[in-house]
Amino acid sequence: MQKGQIRVQTENIFPIIKKFLYSDHEIFLRELVSNAVDASQKLKTLSSIGEAKGELGELRIDVVLDAKEKTLSIIDHGVGMTGEEVDKYINQVAFSGAEEFVNKYKDANIIGHFGLGFYSAFMVSDKVEIYTKSFKEGSGVFWSCDGSPEFELYNVDYNERGTKIVLHINEESAEFLEAGRIKGILERFCKFLPIPIYFSEAGEKKEGEEKSINNTDPIWIKKPSELAKEDYEKFYRELYPFGETPLFWIHLNVDYPFNLTGVLYFPKIKQSYEIQKDKIQLYCNQVFVTDEVKDIVPEFLMLLHGVIDSPDIPLNVSRSYLQGDPNVKKINAHITKKVADKLEEIFRNERTSFEEKWESLGLFVKYGMMTDDKFLEKASKFLVMEDVDGKFYTLDEYKTATETLQKNKEGKQIILYTTNPVQQDAYIQAAKEKGYLVVKMETLVDAAFINNMEMKWENTSFTRVDADIVDNLIDKQESSNTVLSKEEEEQLKTLFTLQIADLNVTTEVKGLSTNSAPVVATRPEFMRRMKDMAGVGGGGMTAFYAQMPDEVTLTVNGNHPIYQKLLKETNADIQQKQVRTLADLALLSQGLLKGNDLTSFINRNVELMQGN
Fold first, then answer.
1. DSSP strand E in 470-569: where?
2. Which of 87, 380, 401, 599 is the most buried (most CB within 10 A)?
3. Which of this chain's residues are annotated to bind ATP (predicted)?
């Protein structure tokens, strides 16, 4: 029998482990199960090269909870350890068995990289015991430690090859004696480990066939050529049981200059508010690490779902936070390229299908174009804009279609857009009569996208279809004479100079077509954009604009026949009511008539209809 002290540089290692080694105490189970998987994988490797003789038997891991005895055991049938190895790997904390093994057998698929992994057991235990027997000749070994630097180590009759670790759970960690809690941790962290894992409670009668809690053969470790559409969809349901079938997916499979496997899915998104980030899971050799992958995956692709697995991503001792590393940047760039290539391929080969999915895809593409210049360059080929009649145009196609009518005096291409085709229908119809092409920009990201693209696309400008009277949408028409005399124009302007709560109203009289509305309300592009952006959470100057009243221009169409009658009205009260009703109709088309003003408009119309 051997007694001694664990050889570490400080006697306080256990309090340090308990408090600071891992931010999440539940990680202890992931570490211990990962070590058990390592031990099993090592045995496979040694057997395949003839260094381990005899039958492998069933390589499985059992996690057994005994709430009555307050213990949790992790049992494997892997390589096991000799007394010397226990002393070397367990007592010499700074020495990592996995690291030495990897150096010796470079092609082995080893999970653990950290000599401290085993010691995470002391975060939740008063005492930890190890029963182990090496695949080599020799007797079983017992090791025990109560969380002080002192340990016991001696030979015992333990006849099972492999290792059994018994944790005596401390009072503070009683939650880990609940079956549901343990099962939940295993399902979260060990769901795709390559060795079957079984969970049971001591004394529990086993009925029917045992079911492992993990899928040892997830699709991302297979080659794309081995998989069918149904395999990808089935795996998506495994990851997100309540998710709708994804639009499509990208299978990542890289072994140089870094190792990266995984499957990224484009989810179906019908409304902007359904966007969910942090749905990509990061694994390291099939061990779950985190679902916070913002350092690895480009920001705009955080909207994707799926799995990434890379042994080359550096992780700290808890495997919970990523550290800065050149590999991470390379992986990030590779994922961007793969996504852009896949989107371009679908657009080129299945354009109709691509357009049908645009409602969901557009969010990814626009977000990516705003945040990633390399993606912007590629995406300009497959960004599409849908017009109000349901036809799609790439930027180049839109420019070609509007070359003659929608270039202003400075040679800038004007993209006319609507944010609400129903509400802005009158403006859209007026633009279509001029031969203009109006596209829909009605998602949450469009306000920011428009501003961004104006800075990045040369000689291109966006104008909302209701930003001005139709004659001024492309180029400002300064002179537009009316059939009215100067005096009548001034009289109309005075009549329509209105004070309206929360609105800054400017009035002008112009000679528009007799078919145009008697009054057209427009909101200047710049101020409206600032307020729109403030509405979706813009800070800084946009927040300042949010506090300002809405700017609106009332363009009175002096050529409309209604004014021939209105100007001759001798009853000033009726005349004023008619003026206000015409102005309110125009404001209503812009959604600017609210509250008391809207109530007054309804009451006034009822009075007019009654002849009052």
1. 503-510, 519-522, 550-557
2. 87
3. 31, 35, 76, 81, 96-97, 163, 319
